[in-house]
Structures are given as structure tokens and as C-alpha cells.
Design brief:
single chain; mainly alpha; 79% helix; 0% strand; elongated
């Protein structure tokens, strides 16, 4: 593997993992934190079931977080290469600038193949298990949610 390929890929990993983790954290805070506390306090599901729900929802968040992390990392790597004038050094050495695009092009093709397989296998598993556990929690703990002067619209076709 040429030195430029290794250099681009070595600069790629830290921003990729950092931005993927940050995006995943934001998605969990925005979407799941409210659900987590609702299952924990309203339904009395317990920490273990709430954590299992969190694990089951992760594949759907990862499908969004990985491409966002990839885009952020690519922008960071090539922005830094441009700011440090390393692209000028590559051109001055006689290489075309397209040589810097090949590592990310190959990695993006591999990442796309991985995400297709991931979405085909893990995403349905997570969604089905999330819905099964959610349905079990709601059906077992419905007496906890019933409060006076509050309409419950969680059941299809019924208002309680």
C-alpha cells in the first residue's frame, strides 16, 4: 500500500470514530432518553429491560451515525490536507491530486457494502426485538399507566 494511502487512512480513523460516537450519543439523547425514562418510570419496566431496549434500537441509530461519521471524517481529513498545504506538496512531487481520493473511494465502497449487509441482518433483528420487548412491557404494565383525567391513546382504535 502506498505511503499516501496509509497517510490518508491513518488521518481518517480518529475523526471517524469521534464523529460516529458523537452522532450516536446525540441520537440516543434526542430519541431514546425520553423513551428510556417513560419505560422506566411510567411502565415500571426496570433498568434491565430499558437497557435491552436501548441495545435493540442501536442498529437503527448506527445506520444513520456511520455515514454521518464518514462524511465528517472525510471533510476533516481533506480540509486538513488543504490547510497544511499537503495537497500542494503532492502536486509538486509530480502526483495527481486524484491519488488522494482513492483511499476514501475504496473505503466508501467497502463501507457501503458493510452497511447493506448490516441493514439486511442487524436492523430487522433490532427492530423486531425492540417491538416485541416494547409490546411485552406495555401489556404487562398497563395498570401502572392508568391515571385519572388522562386519556391513553396508546392502543390502536381505543381511547381509555
Amino acid at each position: 500500500m502506498p505511503v499516501l494511502f496509509r497517510y490518508c487512512l491513518a488521518a481518517f480513523w480518529p475523526p471517524f470514530f469521534l464523529s460516529t460516537f458523537t452522532t450516536l450519543l446525540i441520537l440516543n439523547l434526542l430519541y431514546y432518553s425520553l423513551e428510556f425514562f417513560r419505560y422506566l418510570f411510567e411502565y415500571g419496566a426496570g433498568i434491565l429491560d430499558s437497557m435491552r431496549l436501548l441495545i435493540y434500537i442501536q442498529p437503527s441509530h448506527l445506520v444513520l451515525a456511520i455515514p454521518i461519521g464518514f462524511l465528517t471524517a472525510v471533510l476533516t481529513v481533506y480540509g486538513r490536507l488543504g490547510m497544511d498545504k499537503e495537497t500542494v506538496a503532492v502536486e509538486a512531487a509530480g502526483f495527481p491530486l486524484t491519488i488522494l481520493m482513492w483511499p476514501m473511494t475504496v473505503f466508501s465502497a467497502l463501507l457501503s457494502c458493510f452497511l447493506v449487509v448490516f441493514m439486511d441482518l442487524s436492523l430487522p433483528w433490532g427492530n423486531v426485538n425492540f417491538l416485541k420487548l416494547q409490546n411485552r412491557i406495555i401489556t404487562e404494565r398497563t395498570a401502572v399507566v392508568v391515571r385519572e383525567r388522562v386519556f391513553i391513546q396508546g392502543f390502536e382504535g381505543f381511547d381509555l
